[in-house]
Structures are given as C-alpha cells and as structure tokens.
Design brief:
Elements (H helix, E strand, L loop, with lengths): L8 H13 L1 E3 H8 L3 H13 L3 E3 L6 E4 L2 H33 L9 E5 L1 H14 L3 E6 L13 H7 L3 E7 L8 H10 L3 E5 L6 E4 L3 E6 L7 E6 L2 H16 L1 E2 L20 H11 L4 H7 L4 H15 L4 H10 L7
Parallel strand pairs: 5-6, 6-7
Antiparallel strand pairs: 1-3, 2-3, 4-10, 5-8, 7-11, 8-9, 9-10
Helix pairs in contact: 1-3, 2-3, 5-6, 10-11, 11-12
Amino acid sequence: MLAAIGLDEAHESAYRALVAVGAAEVPDLARRLALGEYDTERALRGLERHGLAAQSSARPGRWVAAPPGVALGALLTQQRHELDKAELAAAQLAEEYRATAAEPAVHDLVEVVIGAAAVSQRFLQLQLGATEEVCALVTGTPVAVTGGENDAEEQAARRGVRYRVVLERAVLDQPDGITELTAALGRDEQVRVVDKVPTKLVVADRTLALVPLTSHTAEPAALVVHASGLLELLRGLFESVWRDALPLRLGASGATERAPDGSDGPDATDLEVLSLLLAGQTDASVAKQLDLGLRTVQRRVKRLMELTGVTTRLQLGWHAYERGWVARS
C-alpha cells in the first residue's frame, strides 16, 4: 500500500511491525518479521533513510518508529511535489512537441513498431492517451494484441472516452467473444458487426492510428500513423465499414415490462438472442454462446414471431428495428 511513496514490501512490513511495538531491538523485530537479523537491520537502515525510523539515543541498538502522521505526511507531500513537477514537465514537452509537429517531416508521419510487446504497448498508449474517442476495427485473429490483455478500455471509458467498435463476426465465435462483448456494451461502447473487416485498425482522437502489418513469418509489427492524408484515409475506411455494419445490443436495455393482461414483450434474453441472430449467428451458435438449449432458442424466436405477427425471420428483423428492440444506430 505504501509503494507509491517509495517503500517496497520489506520496508513496509518492517515499518508496520515497528509501529505496532513502538520501539524494538533488531533480534526482537527479526522474530516478528520472520527474517534474519541482517535483512531486518538492512530494512531498518532503509527506513532511517526515509525518515521513518531512528536509533534510540538512550538505548543503543534499539530502534524507534517515527510518528506515521508526521513521517508519512512528509513523504506524501514530497511525492505530490514530484508529481506536480513531472506534470509540468510533461505539459512543457507536449507543447514543444506540438510546436515541432506543426509541419512534420514526411519521415515523421509514420512510425514502424516491431515486436509483440512493443505493438501491445503502443496499443495501450493510444487508448490511455485518448481524450475524446477511440474507433476500432477488430478481427477474429489478433496477432500481438488481444482484448483481455489490459484494462485500458475500462480506464478510458471512466474518463469519458467514447468507443466505436466494429467486430468481425468470427469474434463472436471465440470462447470469450460474448463475455468481452457484454463487458464492452456495459461500458456504453457502441458495437457493430460485419462478416469481415478489411484490417485491424485503431484510431485515437482522429489524430493517431495503429495498423498491424500482417506477416506469417516475421515477428509482429505495426504502423503508427500521425496526422496526415494517410490518417484521413484510415479514418474514412473506418467510417465506411461502420456505416455498413449491423448494430449490436445485449442485455436488458430495451426489454419491455409485462402488460396488465399477462402478455409481454421481449425480455433481456430475447434481445440477446435476437441481436445475435441479426448479426448472422446460427441458432446453434446462439445457444452455445448464451448457454441455452437449441430448442429454447427456437422457442424464443417463435414467440417473438408470434408477438410481432410475422411469418419469417426476415420480417422479424424488420419489426425488431421498427420497435426499437435492436439499436438502429
């Protein structure tokens, strides 16, 4: 818990133990910590450097804990001061970067990132650095970046960053496809689906894009594209795919309540079934993804057709959009 102010686990344990007894000699404290005396004294010397412990002047060999309110308060104040200086330095560097990037050289418009770790890190940076919107095309065969590698999307969403995502239909067939989709929709992300996306793509704040370079032999690599005509082309590609994609919605949003006469509209599960069917999933695939029986899925579809008074699934899809059961946009 105190790592943020520069204490590792050993130092924190030693300080907590010393605070608990107020003062102690090295052998006594070593027994409490289940450490050797050498390691214990080394930890105490570290606490001394942080101003958290001191040797007693009255009893040589005895160590006394500094009052936490004073000692830790001082460290926290120092840490805040360091963070303020770092924030100021970051702002200055950002201003210098904007000034020099006003007319960037051609060779600075595109970066080549090589290696799975480097590509994954750049992908993380794009999301954590976004302030307005992240747009993404997601394929069913990720190479260097997978959806569950980090919680950058959740952090960005908490900051108010909007997400628009187009999934390749194969993503829904993956073991964690529906779980990750449900989590994304739970963060109010807008998600659509198509049969096939042309390439994996991430665009952050309309100023930066990441495009993987596909290769079956070399290690993963990607292009980071800065503001330029190429970036505008990639943004146009995303918008084109987005317009043609089918909106997805899972969960209870849009479900109707039971009417007084006992009849009812679609419940949350009905909407999940309907949304996945309209995304092109088969009955068997929907049943597997939602952990339902095949007959259960078919019964729910039949009930929805009876509810809307239609005889074909094509008509059901049209009525679903008209009634707002499935998001149109």
